[in-house]
UniProtKB/TrEMBL annotation, chains A, B:
Residues 173-283 form the Alcohol dehydrogenase-like C-terminal domain. GO terms for molecular function: oxidoreductase activity; zinc ion binding. This is IMP dehydrogenase. Keywords: Metal-binding, Oxidoreductase, Zinc. Its cofactor is Zn(2+).
Amino acid sequence: MYGAGDVRLVDAPDPVIEQPTDALIRVVRTCVCGSDLWTFADMEPSEQGQAMGHEAVGIVEDAGKDVATVKTGDLVIMPMFTADGSCSFCCEGLTSACRHVGFFGRMGFPGAQAEAIRVPHADANLVRVDAAPDDAIVPSLLTLSDVMATGHHAAIGAEVKRGGKVAVVGDGAVGLCGVIAARRLGAEQIIVLGHHDDRTNLAREFGATDVVSVDGEEAVEQVRLLTGGTGAHSVLECVGTEAATATAVEIARPGGAVSRVGVPHYAGIPAFPTWVKNIRVAGGPTPVRPYIDTLLRDVLDGTIQPGRVFDRTIELAKVADAYQAMARREALKVLLNP
Amino acid sequence: MYGAGDVRLVDAPDPVIEQPTDALIRVVRTCVCGSDLWTFADMEPSEQGQAMGHEAVGIVEDAGKDVATVKTGDLVIMPMFTADGSCSFCCEGLTSACRHVGFFGRMGFPGAQAEAIRVPHADANLVRVDAAPDDAIVPSLLTLSDVMATGHHAAIGAEVKRGGKVAVVGDGAVGLCGVIAARRLGAEQIIVLGHHDDRTNLAREFGATDVVSVDGEEAVEQVRLLTGGTGAHSVLECVGTEAATATAVEIARPGGAVSRVGVPHYAGIPAFPTWVKNIRVAGGPTPVRPYIDTLLRDVLDGTIQPGRVFDRTIELAKVADAYQAMARREALKVLLNP
């Protein structure tokens, strides 16, 4: 990415092992994230550009001499960022706060929208998968790099409980994965707020019980009616805008919880409405690696099928088309084939 | 209160039993709350005025025929608001969200800065105390009406854990009770942020391990150093201003929790700083009654002595002086003697 709207396919040198804890992976599938669209919309022009992408399933091509858990030929899932696996935050499971965190596709770090990528601290990050790299399973594995893990983080932050009433604000790929996560955690009612019929229909297939397709006060009123007048115990805010956050807070039940997983593109969370209702607000960058460990079995046995959020596949050579299709909301989430 | 700065002692009709679930109590001690000072600072002039005060320890003078748990002559603690004790929120313990909540001293509801007061739903609200109404114990009992319960709510919202590092923003009566609560819950380190030597000295007696008396970025830096570079697991924001909230968020450890118990006098909780650190934000009006049940034993056996936050006693007849003394920060918290 060389600036807003300026996506270019360029030849880059092959990555090489730099540290004995590195691994190189050949990318089997990568994709475009909703968060990449913010960069696509507002990046300042840059001469050196930024390698993009942070989601990948790949095959290990080479590994440094200290790497013990993956080897050449292994199918692996790569989390959206690399953590050292040994600092106090990693030990607590909050890998996204790692003291040596490196976000792929940001601030000069390598991007996954590529043929190959170098992964530092391979043992702490890559997860070996005992499966064939076929089209039936790879898309769902790929969602564990970010979007399904992020939907799970939203559900955890919103304290989704068995039997609870849940609302998901947003019908993008994260929102849909939030529906999957809420269902998986046993929510009794899952209301999705979104405008796109194809997406809210998929949400229903994922377990949503109700769809609210209006906005603002009307949406708040509908959620109130659907929840017996009190609001949702758990609200997953999966958009990242001021309006979505205000709605999320308004539809939360007193004593409930709101989580925000989209990068916030607004200044403040409404202070008084959260206070007066004793609402807990949580969320942030997803600690991906521990969540892969939690979610992988359900993906492998087909209990959850988050790969269904991909509704288009494009060759990596035409990556600019993928950004366009998602920015224009013609595609929900695009799989890239290097 | 008839407007900002306009406190008057007036003769009012004696309250009477209106519902069979009411009780009348003769006020033994009441007090002025930090939240009353907001009203004292900015109330619009009003002809009918507002009876003030929401904290009381009293003796039951009369009880309606359906009241079963207290009787004439009992010493009781009155929570700062009345709840019905039977709605879904009360059953979950969030009495402050009761469907029939009534806040004493607000919006036309009776005030406790009086000789007597009518308490609706007496069984659900009043807590009988098996003690003599003497000066050794009554002040501490009185703090269970609000300020000590609120300090406890702050500690619960900030998820204070045994061995945790805690920061308390503000050295007012709520902050000091937050220190007591954090200590009681087993915090290993308790840093209090405040400017008043007499108050921070009392905080140390209550269990604070460190005092930070500077502001803004300097305070943030000191807390960082005191916590080994990472910030506090739990931050209790006990002021209610924008600056205090910004500081609270900045001194929280990634993955930590911030609670806010002062009525927020600002628009928004910083959205990005809370998000990027995965901080949970909680807090709101204190569900007092369940907390009295939790805290009363520790007050009665002297384990905690929150009544020490009262540093002055004034006759109810001179209630205006009490507001002045607290507004000028000459008194920390004033006990009123009807």
